[in-house]
Amino acid sequence: MRSDTLAVILAGGLARRMGGGDKPLRLVAGRPLLDHLLDRLRPQVPAVILNANGDPARFATYGLPVVADTLPDHPGPLAGILAALDHAAAAHPGLPWVVSLTGDAPFIPLDLVARLHAAREAAGVPLSCARSDGQTHPPIGLWPVALRHDLRAALLGGERKIDRWTARHGCAHADWDTVPYDPFFNANAPEDLAEAEGIARHLQVGNVATIE
């Protein structure tokens, strides 16, 4: 476990392709996507929060702090990351890092946080994000709390693209294989839930070592 890192699950999207509602609460193998994600995330960090807008009561059973965007009009995942950085500064001053994840990617690697830190340390840069089979996943990344003021200024100036903002500061990539499946698979549409069922079955029979 990285004792210096707060995790935020970005659950504030509008889920249009899924038909609306909260994607993290869609069921896979009889459990919400969020449950599968938390099983793999909680051993890696000392604290987890959710970034979601609207009534936080829909996540009440999880007992996690729910932090809403601090900027209006749903400006995208960067706004959720900013909300998490501000929350970390106020509520967890001993945690100088935030790792962000999307609530529709339930099968993250068990070494995600450690390898994100290792990638940024090796590259000598302040930021890192996940990459699998050459495809980057900008919302799944590591963020220093110290950059929250710069991020707020960028958002207020109209910035919306994660990779464009991270490029200003330097962003390393931590790489994973996609065999037997992509550990950053995300359920964007109803048809993706069937694929998620297959991955969940794969994990249930213990074939985990090949994806770590």
UniProtKB/TrEMBL annotation:
InterPro entries assigned: MobA-like_NTP_Trfase (IPR025877), Molybde_CF_guanTrfase (IPR013482), Nucleotide-diphossugar_trans (IPR029044)
Cofactor: Mg(2+)
Cellular component annotations (GO), alphabetically ordered: cytoplasm
EC nos: 2.7.7.77
Keywords, alphabetical: Cytoplasm, GTP-binding, Magnesium, Metal-binding, Molybdenum cofactor biosynthesis, Nucleotide-binding, Nucleotidyltransferase, Transferase
UniProt-annotated location(s): Cytoplasm
Residues the record lists as binding GTP: L10, A11, G12, K23, N51, D69, D104
Gene3D superfamilies for this protein: Spore Coat Polysaccharide Biosynthesis Protein SpsA, Chain A
Pfam families tied to this protein: NTP_transf_3
UniProt keyword GTP-binding, yes or no: yes
Membrane-crossing residue ranges in chain numbering: none
Subunit structure: Monomer.
Protein's recorded name: Molybdenum cofactor guanylyltransferase
Species annotation: Falsiroseomonas algicola
